[in-house]
């Protein structure tokens, strides 16, 4: 029964065992031992090459080492190549602060990858089954997972240069244990599977029995639901990428800027996935503190805030709204304060990508626009300073009495928030602002008939 059910499941996914080279993750428990036995049984008829890979996480001392020796002995009896690794997970937990499950999983998969590379086997078979699928989906929905995470465990997925596949997702735990009895397998039992401190075990002992009483075939419905969610999500993700390519004004390693108007033209399901796409791109490893609440905060700022706003996300990611643009960038990437002293003719390359050219000459300048400024050189106190803005900066404006805050000038010209901190400010030796390139000129600027030498500044973006 199990054999035909698994083969039908593989066929439904257009997955053939023929001529496959497979690393099998084997803990020694009922599920993984049954999987190893199943694949070993198809070794000749399907021309399979298999290697068993076992990890001793060193949680249970001699007991877990005995598990490893059990798997090793079984493989020797059946002439199956065997690889194992002893990894001190408690020590890794202490060093990294990771939970036992996260640390064990990461190290286990690293070892599986090593074995796949050693043998040049492109497939990794794991023994997750239908009951695992139900538990995983319910746990993730309870935690508030979104997108593809809600779909639970995929039948197959890419893994480094190869692929993971799970042929037992169509089976229940009971079917696997029955298979072990029929094949006279005596698997090892991990006592931690019975402890209520793990949320998965609570779902297993309390929720799963209730669902199975309602419908003994509930695992099949969850599996179909999982596959529907995965295929729908893949399609929506593809549409999201296509639309986001039209929405993103800037895409850099640590910074993304989107056009809010174009973003709002996208259907709402794509908007949500678009924000997830941005966060996945910027966060190489998503912080555990990031949740659906953060997504809602972004949407609230897009739909309900004024022309500007700012959110501080985990790991110093800033989400900044400035008029019709919204930027996602890390503080380290935005911290580009600069200060240059200029004592004569020169060209200053600025961290924001622009440059300012300084020229002293005796002729009246030919170029005269908002990106150039002209001064009577005799009235300028040196050195000039080209810097980023400072708190309280004000400047006197040409044609106006009094002074005006730089902050208000930026607002008047709708300069995006993320650009204000890197916008060049030019002062003289008295720290008086004489020019805000591209925006405003001071009362000192202009052609002076009494000048014998001119200072010309030219800003190039």
Structural commentary:
It is built from 15 helices and 22 strands. By secondary structure, the protein is α+β, with helices and mostly antiparallel strands. The chain has three domains: 2-216, HUPs (Rossmann fold), CATH 3.40.50; 243-333, Uridine Diphospho-n-acetylenolpyruvylglucosamine Reductase, domain 3 (2-Layer Sandwich), CATH 3.30.465; 339-460, no CATH class. β1 (21-25), α2 and β2 form a beta-alpha-beta unit. The longest helix is centred in the middle third of the chain and has 30 residues, at 218-247. The model has no long low-confidence stretch (mean pLDDT 89). It is found in: Cytoplasm. One of its GO terms (molecular function) is tRNA(Ile)-lysidine synthase activity. Its EC number is 6.3.4.19.
Task: Give me the secondary-structure topology.
Layout: H1 2-12, E1 21-25, H2 30-41, E2 49-56, H3 62-77, E3 82-86, H4 89-96, H5 100-119, E4 123-125, H6 130-143, E5 156-159, E6 162-165, H7 173-182, H8 199-214, H9 218-247, E7 248-252, E8 255-259, H10 260-264, H11 268-282, H12 292-304, E9 308-313, E10 317-322, E11 325-330, H13 331-334, E12 339-342, E13 346-349, E14 355-361, E15 372-376, E16 384-387, E17 394-396, E18 403-405, H14 406-412, H15 417-420, E19 425-427, E20 433-436, E21 440-441, E22 454-460
Parallel strand pairs: 1-2, 1-4, 2-3, 4-6
Antiparallel strand pairs: 5-6, 7-8, 8-11, 9-10, 10-11, 12-16, 13-14, 14-22, 15-22, 16-19, 17-18, 19-20, 20-21
Helix pairs in contact: 2-7, 4-5, 6-8, 6-9, 9-11
Family: Belongs to the tRNA(Ile)-lysidine synthase family.
Enzyme class: ligase
Catalytic activity: cytidine(34) in tRNA(Ile2) + L-lysine + ATP = lysidine(34) in tRNA(Ile2) + AMP + diphosphate + H(+)
């Amino acid at each position: 029964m199990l054999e035909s059910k698994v083969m039908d499941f593989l066929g439904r996914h257009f997955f053939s065992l023929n001529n496959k080279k497979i690393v099998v993750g084997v803990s020694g428990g009922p599920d993984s031992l049954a999987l190893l036995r199943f694949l070993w049984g198809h070794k000749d008829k399907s021309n399979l090459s298999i290697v068993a890979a076992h990890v001793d996480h060193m949680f249970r001392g001699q007991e877990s080492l005995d598990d490893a020796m059990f798997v090793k002995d079984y493989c020797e009896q059946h002439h199956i190549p065997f690889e194992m690794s002893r990894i001190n997970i408690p020590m890794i937990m202490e060093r990294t602060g990771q939970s036992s499950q996260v640390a064990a999983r990461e190290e286990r998969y690293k070892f599986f990858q090593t074995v796949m590379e050693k043998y040049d086997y492109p497939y990794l078979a794991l023994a997750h089954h239908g009951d695992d699928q139900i538990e995983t989906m319910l746990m993730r929905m309870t935690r508030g997972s979104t997108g593809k995470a809600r779909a639970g465990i995929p039948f197959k997925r890419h893994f480094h240069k190869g692929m993971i596949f799970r042929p037992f997702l169509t089976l229940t735990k009971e079917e696997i244990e029955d298979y072990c009895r029929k094949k006279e397998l005596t698997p090892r039992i991990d006592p931690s599977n019975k402890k209520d401190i793990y949320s998965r075990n609570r779902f297993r002992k309390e929720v799963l029995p209730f669902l199975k009483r309602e419908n003994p075939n509930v695992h099949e419905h969850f599996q179909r639901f999982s596959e529907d969610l995965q295929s729908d999500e893949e399609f929506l993700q593809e549409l999201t990428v296509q639309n986001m390519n039209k929405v993103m004004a800037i895409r850099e390693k640590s910074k993304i800027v989107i056009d809010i108007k174009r973003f709002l033209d996208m259907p709402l399901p794509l908007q949500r996935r678009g924000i997830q796409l941005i966060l996945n791109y910027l966060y190489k490893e998503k912080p555990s503190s990031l949740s659906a609440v953060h997504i809602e905060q972004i949407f609230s700022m897009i739909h309900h805030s004024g022309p500007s706003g700012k959110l501080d996300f985990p790991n110093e990611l800033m989400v900044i709204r400035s008029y019709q643009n919204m930027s996602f960038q890390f503080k380290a990437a935005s911290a580009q304060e600069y200060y240059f002293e200029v004592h004569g003719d020169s060209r200053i390359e600025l961290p924001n990508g622009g440059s300012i050219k300084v020229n002293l000459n005796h002729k009246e300048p030919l170029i005269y626009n908002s990106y150039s400024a002209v001064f009577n050189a005799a009235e300028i106190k040196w050195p000039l300073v080209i810097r980023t803005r400072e708190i309280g900066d004000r400047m006197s404006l040409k044609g106006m009495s009094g002074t005006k805050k730089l902050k208000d000038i930026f607002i008047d010209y709708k300069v995006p928030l993320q650009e204000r901190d890197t916008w060049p400010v030019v002062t003289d030796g008295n720290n008086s602002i004489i020019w805000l390139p591209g925006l405003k000129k001071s009362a000192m600027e202009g052609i002076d008939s009494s000048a014998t030498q001119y200072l010309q500044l030219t800003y190039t973006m």
